[in-house]
């Protein structure tokens, strides 16, 4: 194998496929980057079996070939090369010679035959979404996936289309995030995508208005972002019937400034950091919300103006769950809906009806 | 006690004195910030006994008093307050009430009687140095102090004036850093300042041209930077006679570009990272330097143009020691002086004779 390419293109390709590569693997080949020459340049691929990322790098190919090269070492070397043309040539003894200006590296490579193929998806079902919108949808929901493995299906985000409406839903037993978006004439489907996959997809997505093409079969999903393919296994099993969890009614609703509420809760939570509960209390009555929290070190009281409708309520939350929602919800003015101090609370945009966040309150002794 | 001050002034004061406060201490009072009202505002102080930092914060004092308040919690709270006036008032049960706009915190405080006083320095000896110059002097030397406690005196930087020349010297048994500066008519003196102290002093120094006043007695040194006093204990004992370590002659000298050499060594050291020696070899012959390194994963060869005078040499180094020097040395063109593969190597500016770095080579089998 022999090719030449620009250092910056190679760095970009390596950074992309490294997102699928775990630091250490029991299979040495999985710690490597697969490099294949094609008529158009290079194909780079990284995988941890569950998640595979493949991308293209423009290159002048002198002689065809495929190798697998240690991802960490090769990545560090290429990043530190001068901004110039890089020449990569396989020589005897499973060695590649990497030359760039006055730097010459000789590195051992691994046999590419053992490297896993990219899972085949076919094109059974699919949908196209603008890159920037997909980024927004993932950010709005993925934070709420379960992190513990007690119920593996909850470690993923439900990605379903019903009557041309896309619903993305994540929940972990304490809170739920739902984001919806109208799509043009797409057939109904429903898959559950691992949260870890969406994290990596999100890092690769830009704010571009180009379309990402998403296709899947029973076991795998593929995101195609420009020259990059991300293939991940899907989670198997049925997702929770989330519609039945969302309350249909409420007895108190109020609107408030997202930024003011965020800062007040951040301050109040300083007093509840020591425990694991991050407990803060909210007292809502008419146009006023009072947030309090206390610990062995002292106490705090925050007062906010709100616009409310309904009965007064005293309710307690894990402040972290509220902060998580306030960080991703889009509008500056947001709306809360509550029924009692033990019923789920709903948070949504004041105007645009494209998301719903549910947070369970914490029961408090009176 | 009752005072009012601007949040940003209070944050600045807290950040300054926190540099002397360790996270956890066996004495609870040392985890706190001492606050005292004066006719001009507030005095804030933090200490870990070895190092104390005191600064002033402009404030309107309504009622005099002194308290000690938990540094971490108080710091976090004040940083998160709105950018507005902060009102601090002591109330019953050893509590302070911190009010800012619609936020009210009640925090326990500690009795200030147990808080250590700032050590008295008097003004036995002293010197004045421009802030930006002192910053430069510390950066140029402090990296070379010993980190292990085998010889405590080497954990500090020698700070001596001889015939109106200031010498700052640090060494750790493998390398030495010497930076000199002409001062106007200052009496001779010699003290050893803990490296840890200089680290914190460096963080507080700005690039201003104002003078820092430095004064000391047998046990302590005080840096006065605008409204801030930093007092540290000095290390006791005699410093190494460093002049006898510096070679007076050499058999090969060469000049090279600092940036090109830095990048070449950085790349070469990628191949030697696995061991603890970070071993790289240099082969210097005429106008050419070849740097090589190899490990189980492969090898690297870097070639540089240099301007040399003297006999060819093959010599090996711990790359980290060279990189440390290249990061702080001032000029873009630098000069090396070598005698043999087992003799100390000297690195200095090509033109300005105000620093000398010594690095011991690593003996290699041939």
Automatic annotation (TrEMBL), chains A, B:
Free-text function comment from the UniProt entry: Confers DNA tethering and processivity to DNA polymerases and other proteins. Acts as a clamp, forming a ring around DNA (a reaction catalyzed by the clamp-loading complex) which diffuses in an ATP-independent manner freely and bidirectionally along dsDNA. Initially characterized for its ability to contact the catalytic subunit of DNA polymerase III (Pol III), a complex, multichain enzyme responsible for most of the replicative synthesis in bacteria; Pol III exhibits 3'-5' exonuclease proofreading activity.
Taxonomic path: Bacteria, Bacillati, Bacillota, Clostridia, Eubacteriales
Signal peptide: none
DNA polymerase III beta sliding clamp central domain ranges (all copies): 129-239
Domain of life: Bacteria
SMART domains associated with the record: POL3Bc (SM00480)
Gene3D superfamilies for this protein: 3.70.10.10, DNA Polymerase III, subunit A, domain 2 (3.10.150.10)
Name of the protein in its database record: Beta sliding clamp
Annotated DNA polymerase III beta sliding clamp C-terminal domain residues: 244-363
Residue ranges of the TM segments: none
Presence of the UniProt keyword Transferase in the record: yes
Keyword Transmembrane helix on entry: no
Keywords from the UniProt entry: Cytoplasm, DNA replication, DNA-binding, DNA-directed DNA polymerase, Nucleotidyltransferase, Transferase
PANTHER family: BETA SLIDING CLAMP, DNA POLYMERASE III SUBUNIT BETA
């Amino acid at each position: 194998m022999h090719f030449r390419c620009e250092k910056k293109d190679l760095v970009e390709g390596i950074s992309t496929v490294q997102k699928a590569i775990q630091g250490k693997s029991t299979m040495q080949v999985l710690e490597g980057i697969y490099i294949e020459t094609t008529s158009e340049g290079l194909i780079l691929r990284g995988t941890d079996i569950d998640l595979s990322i493949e991308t293209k790098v423009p290159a002048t190919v002198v002689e065809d070939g495929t190798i697998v090269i240690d991802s960490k070492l090769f990545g560090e070397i290429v990043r530190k090369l001068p901004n110039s043309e890089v020449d990569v040539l396989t020589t005897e003894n499973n060695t590649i010679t990497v030359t760039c200006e006055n730097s010459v590296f000789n590195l051992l490579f691994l046999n590419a035959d053992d490297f896993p193929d990219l899972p085949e998806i076919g094109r059974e079902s699919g949908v196209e979404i603008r890159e920037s919108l997909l980024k927004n949808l993932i950010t709005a929901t993925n934070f709420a996936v379960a992190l513990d493995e007690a119920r593996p299906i909850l470690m993923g985000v439900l990605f379903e289309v019903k009557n041309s409406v896309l619903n993305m839903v994540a929940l972990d037993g304490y809170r739920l995030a739902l984001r919806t978006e109208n799509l043009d004439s797409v057939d109904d489907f429903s898959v559950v995508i691992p949260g870890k996959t969406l994290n990596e997809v999100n890092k690769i997505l830009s704010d571009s208005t180009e379309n990402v093409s998403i296709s899947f079969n029973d076991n795998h999903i593929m995101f195609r972002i420009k020259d990059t393919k991300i293939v991940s296994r899907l989670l198997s099993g049925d997702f929770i019937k989330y519609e039945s969890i969302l309350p249909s009614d409420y007895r108190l609703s109020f609107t408030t400034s997202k930024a003011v509420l965020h800062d007040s809760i951040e301050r109040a939570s300083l007093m509840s950091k020591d425990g694991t509960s991050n407990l803060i209390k909210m007292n809502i009555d008419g146009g006023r919300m009072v947030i309090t929290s206390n610990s062995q070190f002292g106490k705090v009281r925050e007062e906010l103006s709100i616009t409310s409708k309904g009965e007064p309520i005293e309710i307690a939350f894990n402040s972290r769950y509220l902060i998580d929602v306030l960080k991703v919800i889009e509008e500056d003015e947001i709306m809360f809906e509550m029924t009692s101090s033990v019923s789920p609370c709903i948070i949504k945009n004041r105007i645009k009806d494209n998301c719903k966040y549910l947070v369970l309150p914490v029961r408090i002794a009176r």
